[in-house]
Write a structure and sequence with these properties.
TetR-like C-terminal domain-containing protein, Tetracycline Repressor, domain 2, transcription regulation, Tet_transcr_reg_TetR-rel_C_sf, HTH_TetR, about 70% helix, transcription, mainly alpha, about 190 residues
């Protein structure tokens, strides 16, 4: 029987908050149960286990992320869209480090991934302004994601120990991506 007041959504949101506070590895069924003052077994009416719980956090994060990206890039194109996209990306990673980490992990294959798909579509949409067609568009999405992820991951881990202003490096990184994207065909012709 379900404990009064607990829902799958409430359990997922508590796990997401815990991920931001303690890191994704700190999200366990026991930790979330302690948050609610219940036994672990009480949560199994709402989640199938740790993998399902973390997958739900990833799906929640994907929806939040897409909801943040959509207005950031709306009505923009080219460099303006790229800067807004990149800043929203970095802002989410900074504000929600545990949720952001969940976005990097694979989700349960049976899960509803429509929110993640929406984020991917927003990324492709933002890059349309650069006139890229397949397979270049997919390669550009991968470059963008790996570059932004690498930067925010290093930043979060304290990996930039040089006295140079990190925000200045961020702006230059995004500007360099823009230059590469507008010269994609010439830069990468075989």
């Amino acid at each position: 029987m379900r404990r009064a007041g607990l829902t799958t959504d409430l359990v997922t949101r508590a796990a997401a908050d815990l991920a931001d506070e303690a890191g994704l590895d700190g999200v366990t069924v026991s930790a979330v149960a302690r948050h609610f003052g219940v036994k672990d077994a009480s949560l199994y009416s709402h989640v199938r286990g740790l993998r399902d719980l973390r997958s739900r956090v990833a799906i929640l994060a994907a929806a939040e992320f897409a909801d943040l990206l959509a207005p950031a890039v709306a009505g923009r194109s080219g460099r303006d869209a790229l800067v807004a996209f990149a800043d929203a990306y970095r802002g989410y990673a900074r504000a929600h480090p545990g949720r952001y980490a969940a976005l990097q992990a694979p989700v349960d294959p049976a899960a509803d991934v429509s929110a993640a798909r929406r984020g991917i579509e927003l990324t492709y949409g933002m890059l349309r302004g650069y006139g890229l067609e397949e397979p270049d568009a997919t390669d550009a999405v991968r470059l963008l994601r790996s570059t932004l992820h690498g930067f925010v991951d290093l930043e979060a881990r304290g990996g930039f120990n040089d006295p140079r202003d990190v925000d200045a490096s961020w702006r230059r990184t995004v500007a360099a991506l823009h230059v590469l994207l507008i010269h994609w065909r010439e830069a990468l012709s075989e």
